[in-house]
């Protein structure tokens, strides 16, 4: 099914008056009320705000995707608003939010909700999309834009519907210090290792960094009175600009494709007790699927 088939002209506002994202959300909710739909406005708004507190839904590229799974609605609602002047909130890419896509769904609906969210995000990532949206003059023009982009909603949840597209990665020539800084900045415990063509070579995680400081950790465990001539972490800090990723990373990792079913990857994660699976397409790293994202996006919503 094409994503455009889920959009309705009456649920599109091409000239938002709000200055903030929460104001835009209220403006879009008012459109449902204007249709005569009965819903608990405060309960819906609270669900959206609760989701925003967990994670900012400003996606980048000028788009925001506030959403909520709540029993305060009985069907899937997709509301799209365009702000010509831009909203006060903005992403770290520095682009003000101009397009707000609000999704509301009952808690019993997960698949269509996630695939729709993924489809809208895919549309937003396409080159030149924001400029084309800003130029629309009629609500029907926006639906045609989405239709021409040929974004589809599949029957099953795929890896591409949940995976992270922005993958934090390092190269074999990067230093231990650069790895630690990137892990801290992105709040990750592992990074992909890629070559200059973005081909996946391996993975380096926090355990690998600690092992660099404690190469004799097995002896330490077997003898807690093991005498060390020097403080290992202090020595590691002295070498952090010299130790390279090439000395530490491992080429043991799990990889899948964007078109793989989520249930297959989730089963593999459970069976092998792994937290992440890298996503590759045509030999290039295009994403990563984290176990916590399956919980946050599918189970938590």
What is the secondary structure topology, with strand pairs?
Layout: E1 12-13, H1 21-34, H2 41-54, E2 58-60, E3 63-64, E4 67-69, E5 77-82, E6 99-105, H3 111-125, H4 129-134, H5 139-149, H6 159-162, E7 169-170, H7 176-186, E8 190-194, E9 200-205, H8 206-213, H9 217-222, H10 232-239, E10 255-256, H11 262-272, E11 276-281, E12 284-290, H12 291-300
Parallel strand pairs: 1-5, 3-6, 4-6, 7-8, 10-11
Antiparallel strand pairs: 2-3, 5-6, 8-9, 11-12
Terminal Cα span: 22 Å
Order of helices and strands: EHHEEEEEHHHHEHEEHHHEHEEH
CATH architectural type of the largest domain: 3-Layer(aba) Sandwich
Main sheet characteristics: 6 strands, mixed
What Rg, in angstroms, do the CA atoms define?
Answer: 23 Å
Question: What would the principal axes of the Cα set say about the shape?
Answer: elongated
Strand content: 15-25%
Number of alpha- plus pi-helical segments: 12
Overall mean pLDDT stands at 85
Q: Helicity, in percent? A: 25-40%
Per CATH, what is the topology of the largest domain? Mannitol-specific EII, Chain A
The structural class is: alpha/beta
How many structural domains can be distinguished in the coordinates?
2
> What is the CATH first-level class name of the largest domain?
Alpha Beta
Number of strands: 12
CATH level-four homologous superfamily name of the largest domain: Mannitol-specific EII, Chain A
